[in-house]
Q: What sequence folds into this?
């Protein structure tokens, strides 16, 4: 099957109603990636939207079995919903997914010892930080750390053991002695600032959206 | 004078109608029904399929899409978390701490990837085609259609709805009608070889007419492995048409729930001619009863092989989902069959939440054709030390491999129900082992 030319186009009317303030053409010319990848994700959005009202609820996410069995599934789903709301539209959907833009090929070819553009990496780290920091006070307290640990291990580790793991982690990370982990301390732990979140060659991620320009 | 003037025209019209009707009917009989009775084929359908393919190639080839979002190799939880830790940390990993804050990235990434694309939810809706096949229903995103294509599409609509659909509906009614009538008649015969023989012939004939009613072009492979008496035939399930496809090439005892209405009439008359296994709605829940009836049937070597679809629900023919272990506990020989449809001519998947049965059949009969391949796989039996679940998975893997389908462990019941918490607990257990396991090593050294 030779030709891979992409002809799929998004019906402009449908797309525009999702993102009323940004014309489709503007969004496309911001991105080095083709139209098709955005439409692919829009197609995914509509297939998840069983109620067909242009927004996703938490139940729509929980219908994905692989997400429902993820120990941190609920927290990840929460990340899509802004404070106090329980519906997310396509714009919000894309904005959250934009955190996971992989490092581009042309960036990889640069000197590997040079530091990555802080933006993209920082966004990912912030996303992970906010999974821990539920009350958004920019600090991960011992309780918050324990909560996430408990979600990841289930019933298999006792409270005492988990507590000591949490204490040890905070001890290693905490630098200013306030017994909690701030964002700066978070990224220094285990050299997270150099972490390769998409971990290497055996991963081929073919398309994500580049909507980091959709800022509020 | 008026009467005299109109009469000749009326007569002419009547005569013309009469002639065309007769011609039509004769053609139908000769080219379709008679071959069905005797199980021969003129090759008309194959010719039709080749013509269609040519037309698709010539006109629609340039419309294709890229479909992948995420491609990855399967690795385990432990490997991936270690990989993440390695890429971040420059510390000596022999003294790896039991927990790293970066571990959260593993679950984060799995979660986000499953939001972008997951293996399960897409199995419950029709497969997306790579290029358009001139049917309105599969044109979801192909906007750039030239005039030529539109004309072709219009022509297609006329042919399909004006000619093919009425023809197929007539055949369907003929097939089903004959089945009901003839099996009821055979029911009056005394039990014996004559009755079995006639029943087989009648079933085969009627299913063949139904096959032509759907313009199903089926290629059977490895017919030497066809299911024999006293065995159980298992196949992957895409639609009710699977039954017609398999039963037109061999005789099976069907298993299922008694329905009301037309379906119930058909079921009741079929069981007069040969022993099918129909359950009342209340009996379906009782697993022991079901197992008992099935094992009683297979023990009787004169009875036909049972046809079962262990997935329990229709899947969209891109994958094979979990096989329910019930049929694999019975302990007889299992004859696996793989069915793969070619979606270019018409998607056979029945999305029962979207269409009812009648709607679905009309869609089938107004597609171009139903093209599929059937592979009869060599018989399998349960091995020593293998339990029913492992046996079921082995059979499933064989079917998936032959049919070119993805082998999934997920339950087809996820179409309607929620996933069990045990899967989440498994992941938690694996991760805990990673954390605590390190501690045990530490305390040992």
A:
């Amino acid at each position: 099957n030779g030709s891979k030319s992409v002809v799929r186009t998004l019906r402009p009317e449908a797309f525009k109603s999702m993102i009323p303030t940004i014309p489709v053409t503007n969004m496309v010319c911001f991105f080095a990636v083709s139209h098709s990848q955005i439409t692919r994700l829009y197609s995914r959005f509509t297939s998840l939207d069983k109620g067909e009202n242009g927004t996703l609820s938490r139940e729509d996410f929980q219908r994905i079995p692989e997400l429902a069995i993820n120990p941190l599934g609920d927290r990840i789903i929460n990340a899509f919903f802004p404070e106090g709301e329980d519906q997310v539209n396509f714009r919000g959907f894309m904005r959250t997914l934009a955190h996971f833009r992989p490092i581009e090929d042309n960036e990889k070819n640069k000197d590997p010892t040079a530091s990555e553009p802080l933006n993209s990496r920082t966004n990912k780290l912030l996303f992970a930080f906010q999974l821990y920091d539920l009350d958004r006070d920019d600090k991960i307290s011992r309780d918050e750390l324990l909560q996430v640990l408990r979600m990841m291990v289930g019933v298999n580790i006792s409270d005492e053991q988990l507590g000591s793991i949490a204490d040890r982690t905070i001890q290693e990370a905490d630098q200013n002695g306030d017994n909690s982990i701030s964002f700066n301390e978070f990224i220094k732990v285990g050299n997270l600032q150099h972490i390769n979140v998409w971990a290497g060659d055996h991963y081929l991620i073919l398309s994500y959206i580049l909507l980091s320009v959709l800022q509020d | 004078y008026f009467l005299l003037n109109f009469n000749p025209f009326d007569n002419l019209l009547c005569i013309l109608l009469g002639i065309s009707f007769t011609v039509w009917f004769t053609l139908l009989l000769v080219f379709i029904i008679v071959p069905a009775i005797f199980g021969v084929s003129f090759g008309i359908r194959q010719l039709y399929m080749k013509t269609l393919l040519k037309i698709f190639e010539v006109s629609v080839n340039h419309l294709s899409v890229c479909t992948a979002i995420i491609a990855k190799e399967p690795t385990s939880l432990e490997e991936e978390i270690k990989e993440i830790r390695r890429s971040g940390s420059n510390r000596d990993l022999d003294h790896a701490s039991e927990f790293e804050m970066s571990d959260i990235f593993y679950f984060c990434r799995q979660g986000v990837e499953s939001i972008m694309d997951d293996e399960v939810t897409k199995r419950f809706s029709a497969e997306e085609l790579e290029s358009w096949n001139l049917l309105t229903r599969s044109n979801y995103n192909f906007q750039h259609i030239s005039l030529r294509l539109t004309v072709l599409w219009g022509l297609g609509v006329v042919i399909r709805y004006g000619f093919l659909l009425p023809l197929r509906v007539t055949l369907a009614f003929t097939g089903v009608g004959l089945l009901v009538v003839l099996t009821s008649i055979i029911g009056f015969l005394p039990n014996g070889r004559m009755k079995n023989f006639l029943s087989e012939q009648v079933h085969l004939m009627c299913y063949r007419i139904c096959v032509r009613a759907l313009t199903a072009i089926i290629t059977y492979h490895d017919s030497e492995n066809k299911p024999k008496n006293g065995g159980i035939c298992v196949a992957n399930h895409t639609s009710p048409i699977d039954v017609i496809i398999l039963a037109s090439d061999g005789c099976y005892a069907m298993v299922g729930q008694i329905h009301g209405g037309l379906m119930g009439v058909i079921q009741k008359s079929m069981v007069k001619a040969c022993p099918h296994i129909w359950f009342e709605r209340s009996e379906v829940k009782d697993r022991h009863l079901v197992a008992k009836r099935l094992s009683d049937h297979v023990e009787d070597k004169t009875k036909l092989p049972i046809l079962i679809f262990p997935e329990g629900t229709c899947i969209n023919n891109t994958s094979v989902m979990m096989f329910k272990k019930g049929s694999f506990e019975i302990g007889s020989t299992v004859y696996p069959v793989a069915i793969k449809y070619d979606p270019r001519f018409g998607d056979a998947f029945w999305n029962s939440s979207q269409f009812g049965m009648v709607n679905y059949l009309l869609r089938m009969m107004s597609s171009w054709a139903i093209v599929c391949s059937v592979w009869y796989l060599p018989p399998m039996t349960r091995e020593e030390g293998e339990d029913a679940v492992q046996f079921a998975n082995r059979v499933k893997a064989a079917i998936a491999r032959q049919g070119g389908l993805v082998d999934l462990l997920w339950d087809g019941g996820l179409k309607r129900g929620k996933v069990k918490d045990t899967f989440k607990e498994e992941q938690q257990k694996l991760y805990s082992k990673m954390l605590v396991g390190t501690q045990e090593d530490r305390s040992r050294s």
User: Anything to note?
Assistant: The first strand of chain A starts at residue 139 and ends at 140. The CA atoms of residues 36 and 51 of chain A lie 24 Å apart. Strands of chain A lie at 139-140, 181-182, 203-205.
